[in-house]
Amino acid sequence: MNHKIFNKKKLGIKADKASEVLNSVHYADNKDILQECAAYWYDLRELRHKRKRCGRYVYGKQWEDLIPNPDRPGGFITERQAIMMQGKTPLQNNMIRRFLNSIVGQFRTNQTEPVCTVRDSDEVKIGEMMTIALQANEQLNKTSELDAINLFEYAISACAFYKIKYDIVPSNGMLDGIVLINNPARMFWNADMEDPRGWDLRHIGEIHDLRIADVLRAFAKNKQDADYIRGLYHGINTRISSSYGNMTTKRIDNLDFYIPQDDYTCRVIESWRFESKQRLRCIDEAEGSLYWVDINKESGIKAENERRINEATAQGVDIDDVLLIKYEWAIHQYWYYRFLTPYGNVLSEGESPYWHKGHPYTFNFYSSFDGEPHSFVEDLIDPQRMLNRMYILQDFIISSGAKNTLIIDADALNGQSPESIAESYVKVGSVIVMKPKTGIKISESIHQIKADNNNVGTYEMINLMMSFMNDISGVHGAARGEEPKAGTAASLYAQEAQNAATNVVHLINSFNSLRTDRDIKLMKVLQQYYDSRKFINTAGVYYSKESKYYNPETVQNSEMDISLAQSTSTAAYRSVMDTFLLDMFKGGAITLKMLLENSTLPFKDRLLQSVESAEQSAENGQMQGFSPEMMQEIQGQVNPEAMNMLSGNFMPQG
User: Pfam families attached here (predicted)?
Assistant: First the structure.
């Protein structure tokens, strides 16, 4: 029998369902996985449509919705075209983006940063060490900018994604942790996910458009791999020939799952799928660890237990007291990645390489109901449309009404043309000769008509719509930084600002929850790949130098919690900190050296060196004061009262 022809795969005989569960990767077909990814991506068509519509309203394209074409039954035109066909101008006043700018402004004003907390209070230095490493990496990735951009995305599309990996950083060419934001239009996930935390996620991935050089760098391990991959993308044009203009949304608007938008890019589908396999769940009583091994490793476990029993009995220990490896058969579920071509070829695959054993994505959905997210912008679209209609209506009323129209009796023109009368009428000091009929006054032959079309209620409607949008969004004048009305008390204005911030706290806190999940995953990636001792100096972080020396031996096996704390890199935080330290120094609670070690004064390092040098000289029986240059710099930075204290003893005089 020719088994190359007569086998289950060639004959189309699939494994039974039980076998697929016992080893889902072994019995999976990569083309079926590709079709599953495509089905999930196409199922998200409505979400992408809603996201695109909300994005148009945020960025000024507010008359692009399609409506039936009255001139061609069955056809569609945009609202902008329909308005222009009626001879009107499609006016608009973009209030939505104004609200989002205020929300992002509040987010930037109250900037936070991650702080790692070790559960064992005796290992505080380890938490500080990890905090410094994490904050340094986030400064490298400029996550403050990424967060502001992603908050816009979160408010528009009701979903936001981050991707954490360890790769070459483009800015410095070094290997380090990388934080990326993902475009939701390129993402896909299993359609039956309903848990807002994503705990029922079973399949997630994204579609990439990469140049052939990037594909080879990522997946080719040798020359043979490079030739094979180049053959898979043999039709790729290596010369740049863009199908669309630069800095436009057309690439995303016309996105397809299988075909890239530019002929010089290669489509790569990244898939992370929750697979299952029969394995042995082991608990090592000697180490207190839990791990999984394949079924064929059972003999090795038995041999190790036998060795421990023999060793223990030789030392006179009872068999029942020996610490063994306990194990049992179970179905193990784990994350498995695949990088596929549009034809189902595998570029790379394997179990999750990360210690956290998960996929590299973190995500969150805003205001989810029955698995369907609803964006913050979605509630503002209808009031914005009504506001735009009021502007157009007011413009149409004014443009179509009579404006100083002059009516003259034709019998009184006295041979003059209406054009000459109109020209003379608007000139200063002009003379118009008229001859009214006998018995008719001149005032009865000339009439001026001016339509009173300004006060028809549209201004009131515009103000009402703007008030509706303020109430719906929760972003009132105080939140936008507008000046209060005359006579408004400062306490009342502060309360209004606080109330406005409360209205958007759900949006910002939900987004901060996503940031916390991202920081936890980034921390675990850094723990895994930071395998050498290094000194990390981070701007705005004031910890001991001992904590700034990252030691992987003490950090890698530590469990930590992460919380978002007020950023120490802001000027307001530094001012409060320095004032607090100076008050403690004045009260005699701390020494000058302690003040300088914890302050953010620009001259603290040089002054601290002088203090330490003076202490060393005092120990050697010598006296050493500050240099005139140092005293002059101190006088320029510190107030006179503090200067008098610094020029005396190290401790304030009682």
Answer: P22_portal
Q: CA-CA distance, 40 to 192, in Å (whole number)? A: 10
pLDDT at 651 (0 to 100): 43
CA distances to 37, 155, 184, 519, 546 from 64, in Å: 31, 20, 21, 39, 59
Cα 363 to Cα 151: distance, rounded to the nearest angstrom? 12
Token pair, residue 21, equals 């569960």
Over residues 200-222, the mean pLDDT reads: 93
pLDDT band at 115 (very low <50, low <70, confident <90, very high): confident
> In terms of Cα–Cα distance, which of 232, 234, 231, 242 is closest to 264?
242
- What distance in Å separates the CA atoms of residue 122 and residue 108, rounded to the nearest whole number? 34
More confidently predicted of 55 and 629:
55
DSSP reduced 3-state for 364: strand
Task: Give the position of tokens 């509040």.
Answer: 106
- Cβ 114 vs Cβ 521: under 8 Å: no
Q: Which of 279, 281, 277 is nearest to 294 (CA)?
A: 279
Asked if 219 and 346 count as a contact pair (C-beta separation under 8 A), the reply is: no
Q: Which of 246, 269, 253, 235 is nearest to 185 (CA)?
A: 253
Cα–Cα distance measured from residue 302 to residue 324, given in angstroms and rounded to the nearest whole number: 10
Tell me the torsion sign for CA atoms 106, 110, 114, 117: negative
Give the position of tokens 């009107």: 88
Residue 631 reports pLDDT greater than 80: no
How many other C-beta atoms lie within 10 A of the C-beta of residue 176?
18
CA distance 428 to 443: 20
Q: Is 174 left (phi over 0), alpha (psi -120 to 50) or beta?
A: beta
User: In this structure, what token pair is assigned to residue 443?
Assistant: 């005032």
Structure tokens at 306: 């036998």
CA dist., res. 555 & res. 550, Å (int):
8
> Residue 121: which residues within 8 A CB-CB, separation 6 or more?
none
Q: How far apart are the first and last CA of the chain?
A: 103
Bridge partners of residue 125, in order along the sequence: none
> In terms of residues, how long is the chain?
654
Stated pTM of the model:
0.76
**C-alpha to C-alpha distance for 78 and 448, rounded to whole angstroms:** 41
* Helices (H), ranges, 401-532: 418-425, 442-445, 458-473, 490-503, 505-529
Q: Is the separation of the CB atoms in 634 and 607 below 8 Å?
A: yes
pLDDT of residue 485 exceeding 80, the answer is no
506-531 pLDDT, tens digit each: 888 899 999 999 999 999 999 899 88
Q: Are strands 405-408 and 66-68 parallel, antiparallel or unpaired?
A: unpaired
